[in-house]
Structures are given as structure tokens and as C-alpha cells.
Design brief:
The protein is mainly α. The chain contains twelve helices and two strands.
Length: 386
């Protein structure tokens, strides 16, 4: 793999890549992006990494089976045992998928950020627009603070639960697995933040180009050609951005559906465990932990869907910019350029999907919450009936 300028990467994803390397989500081999190693060393480290992940997962399963009597529900409650097994199984499967995907698909990083850097260069060359690194850094910092608060609350409650009659080792290992899932989700959100800032820059370029059309008298063929070349540059920039969305979808093709499935199961089961804990009066600490964890899951999911919906709105704003062109509509070359870019925007919309199964936006979030609420009611009704 070749090297590339890491301006956008350094501001947005680099801290999370270091964290993923520290947690063992990706092997140390892939620390510095673009670095080549000998074939034998490269695959030896990959094998060692996968063996370590498999050993951790096996130990998690062993601890789960060994200490199943120490869990928060009664062992004679078969239904609750099945629900606990469902949550634990999806946790293990999602963690394995994330480890496998993050290690095997890292080449997507090079392709995605090379295109971002190419777009940043074109914006400066074609439209004299400086990419707002400060704005990107601000958004990335907000997400990093969100992630830090999330992990801090998890550690706080886990420390509190250590003094309760619950399996400590299993809690710590499940905490690690849960953090792995959240790191992957926040990695995706940081990627979308980069798309959001890039779309805002495209909107600036489109507005500037439309203003240029309105102010130009086309006194010479040179002015006309420069103006029309700006539309071609905008079309190329949008094409690069759309290609990056496809690369991002392919990179998260395995993990994102498993993450959203795990979120759906967690939101349902956490509410069920909270109801069960209130019913049997097991522990106040566990009750507060379940409620707080449920709220954190909801808020994180809302943030992810909101960012993706904001990107869709920015893309619609970019598309509507060309409707403001009223001058020189009789110019066939101008109308041809506008028609060409409009057709491209219509055929290649910027949407974020989870493995081509689920569109991530606010509209989907409402359906998601309705499904969670329906399953919570079903589980509580079934519990009350037995």
C-alpha cells in the first residue's frame, strides 16, 4: 500500500485507530497506515491476532457457562436463561465479526482517505475553498467526548457492581466486548462526520459556482469555458464522494448489521432485565445500571442516525443549489452541464446503509424504536403470563 497525506485522517480517525490497536481490535501490524511488511511477518501477526481473539471469545463462553448460577435471574427461570443466552451469544458473534472485519478490510482506509485528500486538493485548486479542518476537528472532538463519557459511565457502574453478588470476571470480560462494539460504532460515526464536513464544502462550492454563473456576462468564450468547467469539477467531486460512500458501506458491510442487531437485542433485553429486577427486588445498583445503560444506548443510536440524516439533508441542499440558476437558460452548453450533474445527483444519492439491509437515518430510528417497544411489551407480557 502506498502512502498518503494524513491531514483529514489525523484529525478525525487517527486517535480511534490507536485505541483499536490498543484494544487488540486490529493487529499492531496495521498501526501506521500504508506501511508494508514482509509477507511472512504480516500473515504471522494476523494469525497470532486471530488466535488471541478466538482464545478470548472461548474464555468468555467458559466464564459464562461456569458462572451461570451467579447471574441476576433465577436459574429455574428458563425463559430468562434463554434471553440471557441470546444477549451473550450476539455479543460474542458481533465481537468476532468486528475483529475479523477490522483486520481483513483495512485496505479500505487507504482508498477512502486518498479520495478525501484528492477532494480537498480539488476544492482548493478549482474553487479556492480551503477545507475546514477546524470544523472537522470540533465535530470529532464532540464524538470523542461522547465516547469518553459513555465508557466512563460503564466503568463507574462496573466498579459499583464489583461489590454486588455478580460474577466479576464475566462482567469485566463483557465490558471489554461491549467497548469493542462501541469503538466500532463510533468509528463509523467519525467516518460520517468527515462526509458531513465534505458535503458542506461541496455546498459552498456549488453556491459559489451558481453565483459565478449569475454574475458572468459571458463576454468571451474563455469566461464561458471556465464557468462550465466548474460544473464538471462539481460533478467529479460528487462522484468521488459517492464512491467513498460505497467504499464505506463495503468496509462496514459485516459489522454494521451485527451492531444494529445487537443494539436492538440490548435495548429490548435491558428493559426486560430492569423489569425483572424490579419485580424480584434483587439489587438497586443493578437496576440503576440497567436503566442508565439503556439510556446511553438510546442516545448513542440517536446521535448516529442524526448525523446520517444531516448528511442526507446537506446532499439535498447541494442538489437544490442548481435550481437557483436563472440566467442564460438558453445556453445549450450550460443547460447540458446542469442536466448532467442533476441526473448524477438523482441516480447516485448519498445514503448510509448497514450492509444494504438498513438505511441509517431518523426515519429508520422511529421504526427501530417502535420495534423495540413492541418486543419489550411482548417479553413483559410473556413474563407475567408464566
Amino acid at each position: 500500500m502506498g502512502k498518503f497525506k494524513k491531514t483529514i485522517f489525523g484529525v478525525s480517525l487517527q486517535p480511534f485507530r490507536r485505541l483499536m490497536m490498543l484494544l487488540g481490535i486490529v493487529p499492531y501490524l496495521y498501526g501506521p497506515i500504508g506501511k508494508q511488511d514482509a509477507f511472512c511477518i504480516k500473515y504471522t501477526q494476523l494469525v497470532i491476532h486471530f488466535i488471541a481473539v478466538a482464545a478470548l471469545s472461548a474464555y468468555l463462553v467458559y466464564e459464562h457457562l461456569k458462572r451461570i448460577k451467579e447471574t441476576i435471574y433465577n436459574l429455574d427461570d428458563i425463559f430468562s436463561s434463554i434471553m440471557d443466552g441470546l444477549g451473550f451469544t450476539t455479543l460474542i458473534i458481533a465481537q468476532l465479526i468486528i475483529h475479523l472485519e477490522s483486520s481483513c478490510k483495512l485496505h479500505a482506509y487507504l482508498k477512502i482517505f486518498n479520495k478525501f485528500e484528492q477532494m480537498r486538493t480539488w476544492l482548493m485548486q478549482k474553487f479556492a475553498i480551503q477545507f475546514e479542518i477546524t470544523k472537522l476537528k470540533f465535530y470529532a472532538t464532540l464524538l470523542q467526548i461522547h465516547f469518553t463519557v459513555y465508557c466512563g459511565l460503564l466503568f463507574f457502574f462496573m466498579t459499583w457492581l464489583i461489590f454486588e453478588p455478580v460474577p466479576t470476571m464475566r462482567l469485566l470480560l463483557c465490558l471489554y466486548a461491549e467497548i469493542v462494539l462501541k469503538v466500532k460504532l463510533f468509528e463509523y460515526m467519525l467516518f460520517v462526520i468527515v462526509f458531513l464536513v465534505m458535503l458542506s464544502e461541496l455546498c459552498r462550492a456549488a453556491n459559489r459556482q451558481c453565483q459565478l454563473v449569475e454574475s458572468t456576462r459571458f463576454d468571451s468564450s474563455v469566461q464561458r469555458q471556465e464557468c462550465l468547467m466548474g460544473f464538471i469539477a462539481l460533478q467529479d467531486l460528487h462522484a468521488l464522494l459517492w464512491e467513498n460512500v460505497q467504499l464505506l458501506t463495503a468496509y462496514f458491510e459485516w459489522s454494521l448489521p451485527s451492531l444494529f442487531t445487537k443494539q436492538l437485542i440490548d435495548l429490548t433485553l435491558l428493559a426486560y432485565w430492569a423489569f425483572l429486577n424490579i419485580e424480584i427486588g434483587k439489587s438497586e445498583v443493578i437496576k440503576y445500571y440497567l436503566i442508565a445503560f439503556w439510556i446511553m444506548q438510546i442516545f448513542t443510536l440517536m446521535v448516529a442516525c442524526f448525523i446520517c440524516s444531516t448528511c442526507e439533508r446537506s446532499e439535498r441542499k447541494f442538489r437544490s443549489s442548481f435550481r437557483t440558476i436563472f440566467k442564460d437558460r438558453q445556453n445549450p452548453l450550460l443547460m447540458k452541464c446542469v442536466h448532467s450533474i442533476s441526473m448524477q445527483l438523482w441516480q447516485e444519492p448519498i445514503t448510509f446503509v448497514a450492509g444494504h439491509f438498513l438505511t441509517i437515518n431518523i426515519r429508520t430510528l422511529g421504526k427501530y424504536f417502535f420495534t423495540v417497544a413492541m418486543y419489550i411489551v411482548i417479553l413483559i407480557q410473556f413474563r407475567l403470563s408464566v
